[in-house]
Specification:
2 copies of one chain form a homodimer. By secondary structure, chain A is an alpha+beta fold. Chain A has 2 domains: 132 residues, Sandwich (Jelly Rolls), CATH 2.60.120.10; 72 residues, Orthogonal Bundle (Arc Repressor Mutant, subunit A), CATH 1.10.10.10. Chain A is 46% helix and 24% strand. The first copy, chain A, is built from 10 helices and 9 strands. The longest helix of chain A has 27 residues. At the A-B interface, strand 4, helix 3, helix 5 and helix 10 of A face strand 4, helix 3, helix 5 and helix 10 of B. The structure holds a DNA duplex.
DNA sequence: GTCCATTTGTACGCTTATGTACCGACCTGA
DNA sequence: TCAGGTCGGTACATAAGCGTACAAATGGAC
């Protein structure tokens, strides 16, 4: 481990040195390979992850074997909200969608540090509020908006967390996130492609008109983004 | 105000006297009339409400003038999670669905008490986790389950909070909660009625076969209920 | 008892998305 | 260079839910 780890997680960046430095000894840099599961439904959560690069999806597995995404976490947040809130486990699964890296911390150490430092606690709780709004909007969005709108929203949200216009995603994976058929994604991708907003090849979607994509997306993208800005800046 | 207010909110009941008594002076008993709004999107939240009886819906208003429910709060919880998490406001609206009563507290006093008492904080955070799971499952449910399943889930969840098998609800209101057409609700109610699970007349739905309704509902009802039990008992 | 607003039942054509299936395109590694 | 797996495009019949409209039933106010 280097003497000082470079920090790109925005929660940690927001901390003054006096609040950040005591945490440093607990951090273990880890890479986040594609499709890795960071926490499994119903099992005890061992670590929290402050995402540095890449993107992690919160997904809900369903009894019929399908799954659907309910939230997204990038370098603006951390994986392990249940630990902060006092739960040992959660029915949700955290799965790496876009490969990257994170700073990992033992759940027990995390719990201890947080209860000791109220500034840290306050910051993390504001993040929980932002995530809560994101999940709430997902509920609304899944109920009321069309697939192309939701796809546009998803791509924009992912882009903000991936910090790249090129996203390594197959239609198959997108269909799991959006909770629809793979063939349905192909059609929706087709409409955005025809509109000149994105390009795609095998396992890769590229955003070429961010503005246009925002217009094609439902209001949910903007609402959630504004809420993150409001709460975490 | 009576010398001691009788407490039926389950969060407050779970507190030992030493943690509850300091809160008592802050409580103002209020009634929750049907359709009252407890907090409006985007406006500063003045009070938190520990629900004693009745049920409050968290709804997301959308740009097209419709709305959809993302969460439900009864005597197992409180209205005002954003205050606990450090936000002044939220895009969600809290609206009384089933009339009842609550203990109201100034947001500022609430914030102060909570930061001072870690037992109280820990309890309320576990509730936030349970609510978070409920909202997450709503997102999944809205994306993947059929209307009769979702209606059954909704009725069961409402029943648990109303503590009565007779719910004062019109199809119109149910359609707002479920984010579907009023006529769609009528059809879905019809299928549950034909199956002998519920009865309904003007502005009233009565559950007559709770077990059967649970079988007709999707897994989401059970998942969420189990999570509440796990976290709050 | 009568009136009237609210609530409920039902119908119609239409849109969105489903489930399944098949084939071609692309990419990697031997 | 070729083989084999993954990924993407398309098709077809079907189902779920929509938007709209209209009429019947209900029940509280007078």
């Amino acid at each position: 481990m280097p003497a000082t780890i470079s920090i790109s997680n925005r929660l940690l960046v927001a901390l003054a040195a006096e609040n950040l430095d005591p945490l440093r000894p607990h951090f273990q840099p880890v890479s986040l390979p594609h499709k890795q599961t960071l926490s499994k439904p119903g099992t005890s959560i061992e670590h929290v992850y402050f995402v540095q690069q890449g993107m992690v999806s919160l997904v809900q597995p369903l009894e019929n074997g399908t799954m659907i995404e309910v939230g997204m976490i990038g370098n603006e947040g951390f994986v392990g909200v249940p630990v902060l809130l006092g739960a040992e486990s959660s029915p949700l699964e955290a799965m790496v969608q876009i490969p990257g890296s994170a700073l990992r911390m033992q759940a027990s150490a995390f719990r201890e540090e947080v209860t000791r430092r109220s500034t840290l606690l306050a910051l993390l709780l504001r993040y929980v509020q932002a995530l809560h709004i994101q999940v709430s909007l997902s509920a609304a969005c899944n109920g009321r908006h069309t697939l192309p709108e939701r796809l546009a929203r998803w791509l924009l949200t992912a882009r903000d967390r991936a910090t790249s216009d090129e996203l390594p995603l197959s239609h198959e994976f997108l269909s799991m996130m959006l909770g629809v058929r793979r063939a349905g994604v192909t059609v929706a991708v087709g409409t955005l492609k025809t509109a000149g907003l994105i390009r795609n090849s095998h396992g890769r979607v590229t955003i070429i008109d961010r503005q246009g994509l925002e217009a094609a997306s439902c209001e949910c993208y903007r609402t959630v983004r504004n809420e993150y800005e409001r709460l975490l800046s």
